[in-house]
Design brief:
Blueprint (H helix, E strand, L loop, with lengths): L4 E6 L5 H14 L4 E6 L3 H5 L8 H10 L1 E4 L13 H8 L4 E7 L13 E7 L9 E3 L5 E3 L5 H17 L4 E6 L7 H13 L6 E6 H10 L6 E4 L1 H14 L7 E5 L4 E5 L16 H13 L3 H16 L2 E2 L11 E2 L2 H10 L15 H4 L15 E11 L5 H9 L6 E8 L2 E4 L11 E8 L8 H13 L3 E11 L2 E2 L8
Parallel strand pairs: 1-2, 1-3, 3-12, 5-10, 8-9, 8-10, 13-14
Antiparallel strand pairs: 4-5, 4-11, 6-7, 11-12, 15-18, 15-19, 16-17, 16-18, 19-20
The protein binds nicotinamide-adenine-dinucleotide.
Nicotinamide-adenine-dinucleotide binds next to loops.
Length: 484
């Protein structure tokens, strides 16, 4: 049997081909044992009329190798093209995005001299489902979906990552003071799962204060775990704080597949000029070499990169008069790294990868198999209406009832406006009308909701959506309106 590990490689667009050539040259020189299948993705596939930017034959390659080293691609502007990254992540179930953000001070200029953190971002859920609707003339909606198994998986992954990489602390950023159910679930699961890792220090911060602290004192963070949108934004901020977008690599990990890349895009302004910094993709390749258990090669490549940075041999994005010694192009930078294979940095901390510190050995089953008793107690009916005041609407809807359901309140953009609203509250044409069961003992079934919808329709109202209101084991599965 061959001792080569099959991987799929895509050269991407813009600076992609240059940095991929440099990366492959370095890792091959370091002795990486790879059987490479090359696929074409991105701009030219999009422009051939394929909206996903990736051909069916490329999926076949990914299914065969299960390991993907990918250069950045350009998503053409306009024309309804889908983000290929999102497609790949979701199709292959790459639930964890892992992004180490490390400063190389004093060799690379940064205001944050001792930052060394790993951002672990949930990659599949949150607002990235792309479930958006225009519901009225004035109101547009994007659905934030947070699931229990998805959250458990990423939080557990973060704890396992910390344990296996000898990281001491995990910070979880949420906004559960506002999003009590979605972010509240994430917070609760972080606390619950955290109990299984007593040796790791844990903290939960509201994302705004967490972000502010990260931007001013990143050295206080070790591992940060967050949902998709917060992670998307903050991991770019963190990478930029290290000195250049060109320096960070990332992995996207799933149960069966993994993708490795630089965090930056295709930087068309630098394409074809031999100026791009290949370090981000090279560090992505280091993560890949660890994933395929070629630990010696990963260690060798990473240390040679650190030594090159330390020797002041820099591409133009990190070159600074005074600190740097030699400004080089992409190819020369790669050659300088190759010349340092086998060497270690003297001031920067050398790395040493081995099985013990990198492998996530066990993935316990998510604990979400708890039995739930689900009771239907009402409905939030969303109505498109623009004919008067909240009291006008409330007084009309109050007369529309069923045997067990009555109007409880109306909110507009989440703020209660009926009954007893404030005349000052600004209202759009989008009203949430909450009907709830009249008595505790009433039993609501779906036909009664349909009866209510028919009555509301017969009175000339345009209902645009509804959300059923449930109790789960006696606990409300919905929030109150502001002011309720
Ligand atoms: P970008 O990251 O491509 O470039 C921003 C700027 O950062 C560049 O102008 C360049 O000056 C600098 N830069 C980036 N990488 C560098 C490197 N390796 N060396 C030196 N300097 C570097 O971001 P953008 O301009 O917003 O996006 C360009 C295209 O890339 C878009 O089509 C976008 O959709 C795509 N993109 C792809 C990925 C991906 O494939 N993973 C990620 C982000 C953006």
């Amino acid at each position: 049997m061959s001792d080569l590990t099959p991987i799929t490689v895509a050269y991407g667009n813009g600076i992609g081909p240059e940095i991929m050539e440099a990366t492959l040259k370095i890792i091959k020189a370091a002795g990486a044992k790879l059987d490479i299948e090359t696929i074409v993705i991105g701009e030219e596939v999009y422009l051939r009329g394929n909206n996903a930017g990736i051909e069916p034959s490329s999926w076949d390659s990914l299914r065969r190798t299960k390991v993907f080293l990918k250069s950045p691609v350009t998503t053409p502007q306009g024309g309804g093209f889908k983000s290929m990254n999102v497609t790949i992540r979701k199709t292959l179930g790459l639930f964890a995005n892992v992004r180490p953000c490390i400063s190389y001070y004093p060799y690379i200029e940064t205001k944050h001299t001792s930052m060394n953190m790993v951002i672990i971002r949930e990659n599949e859920e949150d607002l990235y489902g792309g479930i958006e609707h225009r519901q009225t003339i004035e109101v547009y909606q994007c659905l934030k979906l947070i699931t229990r198994p998805g959250s458990e998986k990423i939080i557990r992954y973060a704890f396992e990552f910390a344990r296996n990489n000898n990281r001491k602390k995990i910070s979880c950023f949420v906004k559960d003071n506002i999003m009590k159910m979605t972010d509240g679930l994430f917070h609760k699961l972080f606390d619950e799962i955290g109990e299984e890792y007593p040796e790791i220090e844990k903290e939960v911060l509201i994302v705004d204060i967490g972000a502010a602290r990260m931007a001013t004192s990143p050295e206080i963070f070790d591992v940060i775990v967050l949902q998709n949108l917060y992670g998307d934004i903050l991991s770019d901020v963190a990478a930029m704080m290290t000195g250049s977008l060109g320096l960070a690599g990332s992995s996207n990990i799933g149960d069966n597949f993994a993708m490795f890349e630089a965090i930056h895009g295709s930087a068309k302004d630098l394409a074809g000029k031999n100026e791009a910094n290949p370090s981000g993709l090279l560090l992505g390749a280091v993560l890949m070499l660890n994933h395929i258990k070629q630990y010696d090669v990963a260690t060798n490549v990473h240390n040679a990169l650190l030594k090159t940075i330390e020797d002041g041999i820099h591409t133009c994005d990190i070159y600074r008069e005074g600190t740097s010694k030699q400004k080089v192009g992409t190819r020369e930078y790669a050659d300088a790294i190759i010349a340092r294979l086998g060497q270690k940095p003297e001031t920067l901390k050398p790395v040493l990868y081995n099985e013990k510190i990198i492998t996530i050995k066990e993935k316990p089953e998510p604990k979400s198999k708890i039995k739930f008793v689900k009771e239907l107690v009402g409905v939030d009916l969303f109505i498109d209406w623009n004919n008067g005041t909240p009291n006008d609407l409330g007084d009309m809807l109050k007369r529309i009832q069923t045997a067990n359901l009555k109007l409880e309140m109306i909110s507009n953009r989440g703020t209660k406006v009926y009954p007893n609203g404030f005349p000052e509250t600004f209202c759009t044409d989008h009203w949430r009308c909450r009907y709830i069961k009249k008595n505790k003992t009433d039993r609501i079934k779906h036909p009664e909701i349909i009866e209510l919808l028919e009555k509301v329709y017969d009175h000339g109202f345009d209902f645009i959506k509804m959300e059923l209101l449930y109790y789960f084991n006696g606990e409300a599965g919905f929030t109150k309106a502001q002011g309720q």
